[in-house]
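Internal ticket #5521
Category: modeling
Description: The requester needs a full-assembly model to guide mutagenesis choices. All entity lines are attached below as received. Residue total reported by intake: 465.
Assigned to: D.W.
Attached entities:
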Amino acid sequence: MQKTEGEESKAENEEVKQVTLMTSDGVKMKVEISIVYEMEIVRSFIEVNDADHSVPFPLPNVSSHTLDLIIELVKNEYDDEFMKTFSHDELKEVLVAANYLNMKTLLDFIATAIANLLEKKSVEFIRNFFNIVNDFTPEEEAEIRKTNEWVFQDLDED
Amino acid sequence: MTEKWSDLPRDLLSQIANGLGLIDFLSFRGVCKDWNTASSQLSPDDNAILYDPWFLQYGGEGSECSLVSDQNKCYTINLPELDGATCLASYEGWLLLFVDESLFFFSPFSKARIELPSCPLNDVSDHVGAFSAVPTSEDCMVVLLDSSSDTELRLFILRRGENEWGHSCFSGYKFSKITTALFYENKEFHFLDGDSGLVTFNPSTPTKQWNKLYMRMSTDKSSPSTLLNYMIRKNTLQMKHDRREIGLLNANDSISTCGTVVPHFSGLCDWIIRSECIEAKTQPESRRLKGVWIQPRYIYVSPTQTW
C-alpha cells in the first residue's frame, strides 16, 4: 500500500515518540503519539505549544482504567468484539471520555454501539438495563404512551 | 466518574438518539425526562431506514390506520388527521394531504403539521402532487396536477412562503393516465404517464416549461436520448400482497396508493415507487381504501413553523 505524504509518514517517523498523560487517579501513562493525535484536546495543545512530551499532560476527567480501554480500542482499530466485553459502566465512561477528549471517530463508534444496544427494546428493559429511574409522573407517562400507542404494541421484553 | 446514564450530557444523549430507527427513537423518548428532553428537537437521520419505505393504509374505519414496516410487521396507528383525507404526495417522511378543501403537510410520527394557503382544488379524484424539497426548506415548491382530461393537463404551483398558487396548462397531446409525480435532479417535475409516457415541467424556464417524452429500457447509448437517473418500481403493494407479506386487503377491498421516491440501495440513483390501484377481486366491493408509501422518519418541526 502506498503511503500518503504528511500524516502517515509523520506518524512513522515519530513511531517511538510517546506522550505522557496523567489520569484522574494520578497514574502517569505513556501513550503513542499516533493515538494521542486522535485526542483533539491533547493534540491541539501539543501542536500549539510544541511541548516537552515528558511533562505529563493532565486529564482530570479520565481514569486510568478508561484510558486503558480507549487505547486498546484505538489500537484494535475499533474492534466490535473487544468492545462487547465492556460493562455498561465502561461503555458510558468511554463515551463521556471520548467526548471530553474530543475523539470524533471513537465518539461516533461508541454512540452507535449504544444505539445498537437499544434496538428493539422496550422502555422497561432500557430502564433496567441502564439503571435509569422513571421520573415521569403517571400522567406524563400515560400521555407519552397514548401519543405513540402503536410503538408499544410489539417489543421484545428481554 | 460516577455519572448515571440518566445524567449524561444532553448532546451525548442526542448523538445516541440520532442513530436510532423510528420505533427505537420513540421508545428512547419514553425512558425518562432527560432522555425525552435531549431528543425533543431531533429528527434522527439514520440512513439505514431510508431505502425501504413503510406502508400506511388509511381510509378504512375513521382514524384507525394500519402501518406496515419494512420487516412487514403490522401496527395499528390512530391518525385523526387522515380521517377523510387523500394523500397526494409523499417524500422524505412528509405527506401532502388534502381534506375538506384544504391542503397541509403532515409528518405522521411526530404529528408535525404545516398548512398550505388557499387550496386551489375542490376535490381530488384525478390529481397527483409532488414537492421539490421538505416543506421546511426555503426551496420547497409544491405542484398539483389535474389530469382528469386526457387532452389537457392543468397544473397548480406554489413556492415556499407564497400565498397564491400559480397555474399552467399543457395540451396538444393525448395523455393516458398520470398517477405518479416527482421532482427530478433539482430541476423539473416529472409526471409518469401510463406505462412509458413522461411529461416534464420545468418551473424555472419561462418558455418551454413543458415537455412530452417516451421512456424505454435501453442499453444503446448512441441514440439521441436522455438517460433518466431513476428506477421505477411498479405494483409494489400488489406483489407484497401476492407474496402474503402484507395481509391488509380482503378480496372485496379496493385500494389506491400514493407512491414515493427513495434512494436506491445501490446509492447510484433514485427508486420511484409508483402509485397503484388495486380493484376488488370479488363483488360487492366492501371498502375503498387508500394507502401511501412513507419513509419512517420522525421529523421535528418548531411549533411556530409556517409555510
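Resolution: model delivered.
Comment from assignee: DSSP finds four helices and 21 strands in chain B.
Ticket closed.
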